[in-house]
Each structure stands twice: as C-alpha cells, then as structure tokens.
Write a structure and sequence with these properties.
Pfam families: Response_reg, SpoIIE. By secondary structure, this protein is α+β, with helices and mostly antiparallel strands. It has helices at about 15-30, 40-50, 65-75, 90-100, 115-150, 155-170, 265-295, 350-365, 370-385, 470-480, 485-495, and strands at about 10-15, 35, 55-60, 80-85, 105-110, 175-180, 185-190, 200, 215-220, 235-240, 250-255, 305-315, 325-330, 335-345, 390-400, 405-410, 415-420, 420-425, 445, 450-455, 505-514. The longest helix is centred in the first third of the chain and has 40 residues, at about 115-150.
Length: about 525
C-alpha cells in the first residue's frame, strides 16, 4: 500500500449533468482525479471498487436520498470523507441531518469553486492522516509479532524465514532479509509477498562502508536479484550493524510503501539484527561446547582380547543447548572401567561439569577403588566443590577373562544385558550424585560368553510422545536380535530409537564377550 500523498480520487455523485459538469471541472482544475456517478446505487458500487478517497454527494438523487447513500458508505468505510452538496435551499434541519448521518461537510447553493476545493482539501487532510495512523498502528502490531517470531526461531535458517515472512506481512510486498552466520556463510530469507511462505537461499552482499548502527538507503531492484520486485519502484534497504566486528543485517522491501523516515523499516532492521546477533552468539557457544565435549571424551576405544566394544555419541541438535552426557572406557590393572553419565542441565557449564566428573571418576579408579567407593568419593567432591549440581552415573569394573562385573549406579538408567535372545535390565537403585544419602552395596554379576551389555543415556529412549517405560521396552525389543556387528547395532539404535531431531545428547556403549 503506497502512502505517498499523490492526487486524490474524488467521486462526484449528482443526477444533474450540468451541475455534475461544473463540480468535475472545478475539482479537476484543482488537481484531483475525478470519477462520476448519476445514482446512489452506482455511487455505492464505485466506492467499493475504484479506490475512492472522497465523495462529493448530492442530497437528492433519483433512486435514494444522499443521506441514505452516505450512511451506507460510512457503514463499510467509516473514514471515507463525504461532502454533501445541494442545489436547493436548505435549512438548519437539513444541514444537521446530513452531518448527523455521517457527512463530513455540507455545501449549499450557491457553491463557490474555491470553497468546494478548500473543503475537499480539508477533509482529505484528516482522512489521509487517519489512514497513515491506522497503517502505522497495523504495521507496529505486525512488527511486534515478527519480533517475537524471529527471537523464538529454533535456528538461523528459520530466523531468516520468519523475518522475511514478517516483513512481507508488515509491508504487504515481497521482502528479503540477508544475514551472515557465525561461520561466515551469507544467507537470504526471501518471501514473494503477503500470504506466501519464506525460504532461504545463498546470497552475497558487499558490506564495504556500512557503519555501525541502522541506516536506510535506496537501491535499484537489479542490485537485489532475489525476487520479482515491483517494476515501477526502487528498493528501501535497512542495514543494521550492532557490532563493528559483525556483518550487518539487511532488510529489503520496495521503497514506495514507506511513511516519511521509514520508522517501521528501521525498527524491523534493529529487531532482526538483535535476533541474529543472539542466534550467532548461541551458535558460537554451542559449537564451543560440542568441541569441548568431544575433546574430553575418550579419543579411541581400547582393543581388549575377548571383548568387542562399540560406542555411539551424538550431541544435541544445533538448535538445542548442549548437554552433559559423558562416557569412559579404559583398561586399569587388567580390568575394564566402563562409565556413563549425564550432568543435569543443558549449557556450556554442563559440559564443563561433565569434564570434571569424568576426570574424578578416572582418578579414583586409578587409585584402585571399587565402583561404589568411586561414586562415594565423586559425590563428596561434588557436594563440596559443585554444591548446586546434580548428575546420574553408572560405573562398572569388568574382568575380561572371567566376565565378572562390579557395578554401582547413581540414579542412572539400568544397563541392559542380552543373553541368547533374553533381555534383562540390571537394576541398582541409588540416589543421584550431588545428594547426601546412603548408597547400596555394589551389584555383582557375570557377563557370560556371547552376551552383550549395553549402557546408554536418557537421550536414546526419552521422547516427547512416549513414557520412559515405553522407551525401555523399545530398547529391549531391539536388543533381542543384536546381530554380529556391534557398531551397526549401536547405529541402528540411534536411527530407530532416538528422535530425528535430537534434543538431548545421546551416548551408547555396547560390550560383547567372546
């Protein structure tokens, strides 16, 4: 919708050809675009279809009174100005009736051309000011909705799609939003127009000379060949740069749709830039956390005679905060130390707590302690140094020669033992790490030749549409037929049990004894 003050379109409604000719001539010479109608019914049809901004309406028409026509116009378009004109002598009652039933002015014979033109300009100034205010309020409401949507977007691509769709909704035009990811990839969210869906495409912009802050410039459509822009318009480009060391964010829409100063476009550019900067910071933190996680986990799986080992570890999806899942596989004094755990929370902090716990478990295991004592000491360490943290963990020491296992758990999900098609969960109920409470003795059992032991974190079996018990049942069903390749089995668990978009870290350890 164009908001420039161009020539107004006026509809003159009068059944007298002579009088209509005079009114049309005066208004045309004054610079108005003038249309004509002879009856009330014709006038109502034209008002609904021809973009009329002012109606000059005779009081007496052959099919209905001008008062009735005015009332019907105001019922559908309350802001549209109507000026009554009358060639007959009128009294105060007539004037009062016309104004009471919706007219904005009342002129009676003899009508002076200058008075008619001045009255038309006066009512149009109010009409256009009201339309601008209504348009501005509508755009601000849509701006608020778009700001919420871009800040709630789960990832960078969705953010650009929401921003472009929102810009198209605000200005009712094609729109594009261009921004650079934290990795330096420049992407554009584009939307062909009101009601259309947004999409993301690669696009490169020359940022030379763009200052910090928000600026607006006018570009040619050929500079932004992302969309089919209106052929008779140029483009308004808001460039918002919040930090000197970051690439700016661009919002691009046709220039003709803006009010003076382009305040809504400026605010939209700033809102999108703030959301982009938050997403960049989050993506950067997520990447650091994932890198930290991977660097602190075991670099390789030990090779042990008589055992097959397989591991799968998948960090949470990019749009989810990183978690604190960890595992350990290391040979100590002829025994295999297996551990798997999960620090409460999802953040870079959770990943650093995970690293401290993993190193503490290794240190106490190197000292020769059994699993229960290891967890007791780790728990005391947590309560002293990390009093606000909680974690679950399961620690096992296995003799590869005999298959004898000692296990202690701290609130972790029970390991699964599969033997000849039979599947059992090894329950060892105990409080979480970080809680002062009595702990049960270690659980002792044997992994017989041919059996498979599976340890896992809750990201494997927890789904929003299922209970924990249903997840455990699904895991047991998959473990009935593990197959010869443990690595393929672990991959199958992640593919078929974990959700397609992983919202929590997933760790799986599988051990088979020959």
């Amino acid at each position: 919708m164009t908001v420039e003050d161009g020539p107004a379109t006026v509809l003159v409604v009068d059944d007298s050809r002579t009088k209509r000719y005079l009114l049309v001539s005066w208004l045309t010479r004054a610079g108005f675009a003038v249309l004509e109608a002879e009856t009330g019914r014709e006038a109502l049809e034209r008002v609904g279809t021809d973009g009329i901004e002012l109606v000059v309406l005779d009081v007496r028409l052959p099919d209905m009174s001008g008062f009735e026509v005015c009332e019907q116009i105001k019922a559908t378009q309350p802001a549209l100005p109507v000026i009554h004109v009358s060639a007959h002598a009128v009294d105060v009652v007539d004037r009062a009736q016309g104004l009471t039933r919706g007219a904005d002015a009342y002129l009676a014979e003899p009508i002076e051309p200058d008075e008619l033109v001045a009255t038309a300009h006066a009512v149009l100034r109010y009409f256009r000011a009201r339309k601008r205010a209504e348009l501005f309020a509508e755009r601000l409401a849509r701006l608020a909705e778009t700001t919420v949507a871009v800040h709630a977007a789960p990832n960078f691509a969705c953010l650009l799609e929401e921003a472009a769709t929102g810009a198209a909704e605000i200005f009712r035009t094609p729109a594009a939003v261009v921004a650079e990811t934290v990795d330096g990839d420049c992407l554009a969210g584009i939307c062909p127009g009101l009601g259309a869906s947004g999409s993301v495409v690669p696009w490169t912009v020359d940022d030379t000379g763009v200052p910090t802050g928000t600026t607006v410039r006018i570009d040619e459509p050929s500079d932004w060949g992302l969309l089919d822009w209106p052929a008779d318009d140029r483009l308004a480009v808001a460039a918002a740069r919040l930090r000197e060391d970051r690439a700016p964010v661009y919002v691009v829409v046709p220039a003709g749709v803006h009010t003076p100063g382009m305040p809504v476009l400026v605010q939209l550019g700033q809102a999108v830039a703030a959301a982009v900067e938050a997403q960049r910071s989050y993506d950067e933190e997520h990447r650091i956390a994932v890198t930290l996680q991977r660097s602190l986990l075991p670099r390789r799986i030990p090779v042990i005679d008589g055992l097959d080992l397989a591991v799968r570890y998948e960090p949470a999806s990019a749009q989810t905060e990183v978690g604190g899942d960890f595992y350990e596989l290391v040979m100590l004094d002829g025994h295999l130390l297996m551990a798997i755990g999960d620090v409460a929370g999802h953040s870079l902090h959770a990943a650093t707590v995970m690293a401290e716990l993993r190193h503490a478990v290794r240190a106490y295991a190197v000292e020769g302690h059994q699993p229960g004592e290891i967890l007791h000491r780790v728990n005391e360490l947590m309560r002293r140094l990390l009093p606000d943290e909680l974690a679950t963990i399961c620690v096992l020491l296995l003799d590869p020669v005999t298959g004898q296992v000692r296990m202690a758990s701290a609130g972790h999900l029970p390991p699964l033992l599969a033997v000849d098609g039979r599947v059992d969960y090894l329950q060892h109920s105990a409080p979480l790490l970080g809680v002062r409470a009595a702990r049960p003795p270690d659980l002792e059992f044997v992994v017989p030749p041919g059996a498979t032991l599976v340890l896992y974190t809750d990201g494997l079996i927890e789904r929003r549409d299922a209970t924990i018990d249903e997840g455990l049942d699904a895991l047991a069903a998959h473990a009935v037929d593990i197959g010869a390749d443990l690595d393929a089995f672990c991959a199958r668990l992640l593919r078929e049990l974990a959700p397609s978009e992983i919202h929590d870290d997933v760790a799986v350890l599988a051990l088979r004894r020959h």
